[in-house]
């Protein structure tokens, strides 16, 4: 066995970024994935480097909006009924963190990790041949009414307080930046620190090829379990093949929960399925990513076409996708781009690995320090992937990470930490 060796489970953006960080630090790396070059969340996402997203999903007062969103069967939020009983602990924790003090704590941790994103992403993109794929053009969040913007002002102020640049714009200023938008847009916010990439699939493909060219081994296989050994750990594949290493990193996206549970760690990570449609020749041109705040979807001008994406569907990992959601998102887009041509749109869906507190799980497993977790990045896996890779490479080498990773610890899901009696005011909010 080489001096330090690592097996990374998962070849999504997070696993590949971890492998990059390890390799750059002299760690020999093997990546195991059931389908290394195949479809995954990292392949069809909206392409946003969303560093300004520092407010978690669960905030005070959210419960007032949820029933309204769920009234529409193809609306922004859906729960598949058969999955709801299994989702209850996740939902309980989601509600529990929606207090002003928890939102402050979580936002600070998100601002910390997002604040490092360009420090880690730019060198990675430059080295592997993706320098021209990052478009630093900011993003526009648009609203159909003054009320819409005012209702979100608390979040915008919180972001400002955490160092996010926020510029309010009038309808005329927005149309000057994005003439394709219909006059239904009344105001909005420009966030110049946001970027987008040309094509998420290209990013994982180029990174994977670079890793192989630079010595990483990729093994195709379904990991059945991860087992600590006396001087490291081993992965056991379906069929019994075993591979050992000094360290094993679990970066298996929305599938990570099962492997962590086998290790004896309690983790609340759920599939939050999202949908996109990519239209190669939409007949409308955008300069930058646009976020439609009232209707909860986004449009990103990728090199392969206009990608319209959104939806948050909690139905577990096994249920078939409902592409009526992709169609519903295109219908919404027509509202803002009346001239859009939808022919030839390619529909896709993927499992966001989402935790109730919107924070990723990065750090050592409770029972074994040789097993390291890197999953649960929810809406921000593309954004936070390279920084996660940097943090994990520090952990592999026994160095102190550059940011405080305590908020990302798997220990936060421990049953001892969360009980009704810790937050009896939950139902009074
Ligand atoms: C519609 C949509 C839009 C999004 N937009 C953005 C965005 O604009 N910006 C952003 O930052 N993020 C965005 N995201 C989120 C982002 O895509 C995810 O957070 C990220 O891709 C997760 O990466 P990952 O590597 O953790 O997981 P994945 O990409 O899902 O990769 C996990 C890998 O693990 C493998 N695997 C799992 N279990 C096993 C096993 N037992 N054995 C072997 N292999 C296994 C899988 O095959 C897979 O290849 C979006 C997501 C969606 C769905």
TrEMBL record:
MF terms in GO: oxidoreductase activity
EC number(s) per entry: 1.4.99.1
CC annotations in GO: cytoplasm
Superkingdom of origin: Bacteria
Presence of the UniProt keyword Lyase in the record: no
Name of protein: D-amino acid dehydrogenase
PANTHER family in the cross-refs: GLYCINE OXIDASE, SARCOSINE DEHYDROGENASE-RELATED
Record key words, sorted: Oxidoreductase
Alphabetical list of SUPFAM superfamilies matching this protein: FAD-linked reductases, C-terminal domain, FAD/NAD(P)-binding domain
Pfam families cross-referenced by the UniProt entry: DAO
Chain ranges of the FAD dependent oxidoreductase domain: 6-395
InterPro entries with a match to the protein in the record: FAD-dep_OxRdtase (IPR006076), FAD/NAD-bd_sf (IPR036188)
Root EC class: oxidoreductase
UniProt source species: Rhizobium meliloti (strain 1021) (Ensifer meliloti)
Keyword Oxidoreductase: yes
């Amino acid at each position: 066995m080489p001096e330090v060796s690592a097996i990374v489970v998962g070849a999504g953006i997070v696993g590949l970024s971890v492998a990059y960080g390890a390799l750059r630090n002299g760690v020999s790396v093997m990546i195991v994935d059931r389908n290394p070059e195949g479809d995954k969340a990292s392949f069809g996402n909206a392409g946003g480097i969303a560093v300004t997203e520092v407010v978690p999903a669960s905030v005070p007062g959210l419960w007032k909006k949820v029933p309204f969103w769920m009234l529409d069967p193809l609306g922004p939020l859906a729960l598949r009924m058969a999955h709801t009983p299994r989702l209850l602990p996740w939902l309980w924790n989601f509600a529990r963190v929606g207090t002003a003090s928890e939102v402050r704590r979580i936002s600070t941790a998100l601002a910390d990790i997002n604040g490092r994103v360009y420090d880690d992403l730019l060198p990675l993109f430059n080295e592997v041949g993706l320098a021209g794929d990052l478009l630093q053009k900011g993003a526009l969040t648009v609203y159909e009414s003054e009320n819409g913007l005012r209702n979100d002002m608390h979040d915008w102020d919180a972001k400002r307080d955490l160092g996010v640049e926020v510029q309010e714009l009038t309808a005329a200023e927005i149309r000057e930046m994005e003439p394709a938008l219909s006059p239904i847009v009344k105001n909005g916010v420009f966030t110049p620190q946001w970027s987008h990439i040309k094509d998420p699939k290209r990013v994982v493909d180029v990174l994977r090829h670079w890793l192989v060219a630079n010595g990483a081994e990729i093994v195709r296989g379904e990991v059945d379990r991860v087992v600590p050994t006396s001087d490291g750990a081993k992965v056991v594949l379906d069929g019994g093949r075993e591979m050992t290493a000094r360290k094993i990193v679990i970066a298996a996206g929305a599938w990570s929960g099962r492997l962590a549970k086998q290790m004896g760690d309690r983790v609340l990570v759920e599939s939050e399925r999202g949908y996109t449609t990519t239209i190669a020749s939409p007949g409308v041109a955008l300069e930058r990513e646009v976020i439609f705040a009232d209707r909860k979807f986004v449009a990103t001008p990728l090199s392969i076409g206009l990608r319209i994406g959104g939806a948050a569907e909690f139905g577990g990992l096994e249920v078939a996708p409902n592409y009526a959601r992709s169609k519903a998102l295109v219908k919404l887009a027509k509202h803002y781009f009346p001239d859009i041509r939808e022919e030839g749109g390619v529909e896709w869906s993927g499992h966001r690995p989402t935790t109730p507190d919107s924070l990723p799980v990065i750090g050592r497993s409770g029972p074994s320090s040789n097993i390291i977790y890197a999953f649960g990045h929810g809406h921000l896996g593309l954004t936070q992937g390279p920084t996660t890779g940097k943090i994990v490479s520090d952990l592999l080498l026994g160095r102190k990470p550059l940011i405080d990773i305590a908020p990302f610890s798997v220990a936060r899901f421990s049953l001892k930490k969360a009980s009704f009696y810790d937050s009896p005011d939950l139902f009074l909010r």
